[in-house]
């Protein structure tokens, strides 16, 4: 028998280098600084919106540096001002921010209104209301069965039952532009807003005619201005420059009560900081979008409409209880 030649197996080829096929990394703080200074961004504009939406602020419980939270949330704004920047090349966008952190309360079932109320009362009174206790109080007063709140009037009454707060209801007799000024003024006076709206799949305001009705707590705002037109809005003593982001200014609460928010009409855009019962994160929404969503809450979701006996509903429909309405909560000293 002839000797057999033993062949060794072929060597295993080296692992090919990883080739990134996903989107480029999200814009950095340096990119934001370039944008604020009017410089060109080294970033595909058609991808900015998708990436910026993903850069939400972390839970307030995980981030005790509120300025850091503001910076992260503000990274969502540039897409909404790109068109303005493209047509106003010599302008620098400025962001005037008033942000107040809130400890989130997560809802159980359809208790979004009660969760928003818990957050608002705990913030105003430094209290520790639990959702289960607020739900029990709402049931005792006949306002809800499963946690649903289809009446802004009842939500205000519940708040005043729980604490000696001074609140008010803004309704259909107030036009949209006036509502915008009221919201900014009340937030500037360190009050909070409970507002119903239709939520989209990403929790942002949408237009579903009430089919996705949800409640949010508004705690602050961002006014986006053209630097050439913002000199009349504020004086230097009214705000502090952000230490990292050029063009970002933090409004001082001491100056807000005398601030004329009617000047916001000349803003490029106005945004509100919002918290709601399905997320631990602060959200930043266009105020115009919020008010448009709030104004068209006229019908129940098909699931709720199929079992009306399971919920407490306004006798003449949810339009009378929610549409074009929101609640202002004020702390009684």
Fold topology:
Elements: H1 29-36, H2 45-54, H3 66-74, H4 78-87, E1 93-98, H5 112-125, H6 131-140, H7 152-162, E2 166-170, H8 176-188, E3 192-199, E4 205-206, E5 213-226, E6 239-241, E7 248-251, H9 253-256, E8 269-276, E9 283-286, H10 287-294, H11 302-305, H12 318-321, E10 326-330
Structural class: alpha+beta
Helix content: 25-40%
* Number of H/I helices: 12
What pattern of helices and strands is seen along the backbone?
HHHHEHHHEHEEEEEHEEHHHE
If you average the pLDDT, what whole number results? 77
Largest beta-sheet characterization = 10 strands, mixed
Overall body shape: globular
Report the strand count. Answer: 10
**Amount of beta strand:** 15-25%
Poorly predicted tracts of residues: 15-64, 78-87
In short:
The chain has 333 residues and is an alpha+beta fold. It is 32% helix and 18% strand. The chain contains twelve helices and ten strands.
Keywords:
single chain; about 325 residues; alpha+beta; 10-stranded mixed β-sheet; 12 helices
């Amino acid at each position: 028998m002839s000797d057999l030649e033993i062949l060794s197996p072929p060597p295993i080829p080296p692992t090919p280098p990883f080739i990134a096929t996903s989107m480029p990394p999200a814009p950095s703080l340096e990119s934001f600084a370039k944008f604020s200074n009017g410089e060109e961004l080294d970033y595909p504009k058609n991808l900015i919106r998708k990436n910026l939406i993903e850069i939400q602020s972390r839970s307030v419980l995980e981030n005790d540096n509120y300025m850091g939270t503001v910076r992260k949330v503000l990274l969502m704004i540039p897409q909404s001002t790109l068109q303005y920047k493209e047509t106003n090349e010599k302008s620098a966008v400025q962001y005037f921010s008033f942000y107040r952190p809130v400890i989130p309360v997560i809802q159980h079932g359809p208790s979004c209104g009660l969760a928003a109320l818990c957050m608002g009362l705990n913030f105003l009174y430094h209290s520790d209301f639990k959702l289960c206790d607020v739900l029990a109080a709402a049931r005792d007063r006949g306002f809800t069965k499963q946690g649903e709140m289809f009446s802004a009037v009842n939500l205000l009454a519940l708040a005043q039952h729980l604490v000696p707060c001074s609140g008010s209801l803004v309704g259909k007799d107030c036009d949209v532009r006036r509502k915008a000024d009221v919201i900014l003024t009340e937030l500037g006076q360190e009050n909070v807003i409970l507002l119903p709206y239709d939520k989209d799949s990403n929790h942002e305001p949408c237009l579903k005619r009430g089919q996705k009705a949800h409640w949010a707590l508004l705690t602050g705002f961002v006014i986006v201005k053209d630097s050439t037109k913002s000199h009349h809005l504020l004086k230097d003593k009214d705000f502090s420059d952000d230490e990292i982001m050029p063009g970002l200014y933090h409004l001082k609460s001491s100056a807000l009560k005398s601030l004329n928010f009617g000047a916001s009409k000349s803003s490029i855009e106005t945004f509100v900081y919002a918290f709601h019962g399905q997320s631990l994160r602060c959200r930043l929404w266009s105020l115009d979008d919020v008010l448009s969503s709030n104004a068209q809450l006229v019908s129940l979701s098909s699931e709720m409409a199929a079992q009306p006996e399971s919920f407490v509903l306004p006798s003449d429909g949810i339009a009378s209880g929610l549409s074009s309405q929101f609640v202002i909560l004020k702390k009684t000293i």
